[in-house]
């Protein structure tokens, strides 16, 4: 009876350790699919988001003259930044459960995100109307570094809160 319960716990632990990695790969798949959109389709999507954003900004600050092309460019670059910010948080969380020391763990998380960003830009060579842009890898990498920083900060705050509760 005890052995069967130990096996169940072991299987549950394995499943729990896989879930963060499944989330990482699902997010990578989403990024890949967004990058696989031909330029016209991608631009149509971002233009739709930009139109909604300009509509909202005009309600908040009426009379402000916003250039659709400039705002669309900002929306597109922010999409890169935030996609990799989230990827980095997911990767850092998945790595947290492993046996790798904290310092190497952080570098590995950044490395995974930067390599994925570079491979994603390379992938765009094969997408109609799209092409690789080094600046996008830098934007993606900046998002990843900020994401890992946010993860570290939140994790530290949670630990500090837990520590303070334990002292009471």
Care to give the gist of this entry?
The chain is mainly α and 168 residues long. 84% of the residues lie in helices and 0% in strands.
Provide structural commentary.
The chain is mainly α. The protein has one domain. Helix content is 84%, strand content 0%. The chain has five helices and no strands. The protein has helices at 2-35, 39-60, 68-96, 102-123, 134-167. The longest helix has 34 residues, at 2-35. The protein is globular, with a radius of gyration of 21 Å.
Quickly list its features.
single chain, 168 residues, mainly alpha
Mean residue pLDDT: 89
**What percentage of residues falls in helices of 4 or more residues?**
over 70%
User: Pairing-aware structural class of the strands and helices?
Assistant: mainly alpha
Poorly predicted ranges: none
Tell me the overall shape: globular
The count of DSSP E runs of length 2 or more, i.e. the number of strands, is: 0
Largest sheet: none
Q: What is the number of domains? A: 1
What is the end-to-end distance?
39 Å
Strand residue content: under 5%
Number of helices: 5
Taking all Cα atoms into account, the compactness measure Rg is: 21 Å
Order of helices and strands: HHHHH
